[in-house]
Design a protein that fits this description.
By secondary structure, the chain is an all-alpha fold. About 70% of the residues lie in helices and about 0% in strands. The mean pLDDT is about 85.
Length: about 240
């Protein structure tokens, strides 16, 4: 089992065990949490701006859902003014914002190597491999959406195959399809570990909702760090990404 001091070594990578990966993620996140919060605030600011521009009110929708009683299945979401437009624009914005995940992963790697991070590092995904990051996000979003459609549970069994895509896009400068294939192959070799790691990582990322809604801003970015630590465990210490 890794000692606390091991995490302070720039060449340290976690073992192929869920406990080691999660502990590594927690140790790394303490040094990059501020950047993760900034990334989440950018995302929420974009979402809020879209609502204001099209006149959609998410608070009003939540109130109407509450007034509808416990049977949300009969609630007509698309009857809410602006909901359809918001759904489309927020989906597009989500694709365009996805490089922020890659930027956070890059900052985590710099933290592991004990190199000072800069605010501009958060946007490396817009300077390097941007198109492939967006395409991969679209592909993984479709796959995840289909898995969620079939009663949610299949999502947790499918996601390990997508989990390492962003680190591959960054450190291996791969295309979207190459990143998907590489992520799937790594998952096949380490499926049990990634399944358990993904589940625990998601629980820790979503815990902000349970503790306090606003806390989600602080905990949600943690999963990007889990992706990084899992990549280190399964693929080895990352090679410094080449910027283009």
């Amino acid at each position: 089992m890794a000692q606390i001091t091991d995490f302070d070594k720039p060449d340290f990578v976690p073992e192929k065990k869920t406990s080691s990966i999660i502990n590594h993620s927690l140790a790394m996140y303490k040094g990059v949490a501020l950047y993760g919060i900034i990334a989440m605030l950018i995302y929420f600011a974009g979402s809020y701006l879209i609502q204001r521009l099209i006149g959609f009110d998410s608070v009003e929708m939540v109130d109407e859902m509450k007034n509808n009683g416990a049977d949300y299945s009969s609630f007509n979401y698309f009857a809410i003014p602006g909901f359809s437009m918001y759904l489309s624009l927020s989906g597009l914005f989500g694709l365009l914002a996805s490089p922020l995940y890659v930027g956070l992963i890059y900052i985590v790697d710099k933290y592991r190597r004990r190199e000072p991070a800069q605010f501009s590092d958060l946007f490396i995904g817009y300077r390097q491999n941007f198109i492939n990051i967006v395409i991969f996000t679209l592909i993984s979003g479709i796959i995840s959406g289909l898995a969620l459609f079939f009663c949610v549970i299949p999502f947790f069994f499918v996601y390990p195959f997508l989990m390492l895509g962003y680190p591959v896009l960054l450190f291996e400068n791969a295309s979207a399809t190459e990143a998907l294939k590489r992520s799937v192959n790594l998952a096949k070799e380490n499926y049990g570990t990634l399944l358990a790691t993904g589940f625990v990582g998601m629980l820790l990322s979503w815990i902000g909702i349970i503790l306090c809604g606003i806390g989600f801003v602080a905990t949600a970015p943690f999963f990007a760090v889990v992706m990084y630590s899992a990549y280190c465990a399964c693929a080895g210490r990352p090679v410094h990404p080449v910027q283009r």
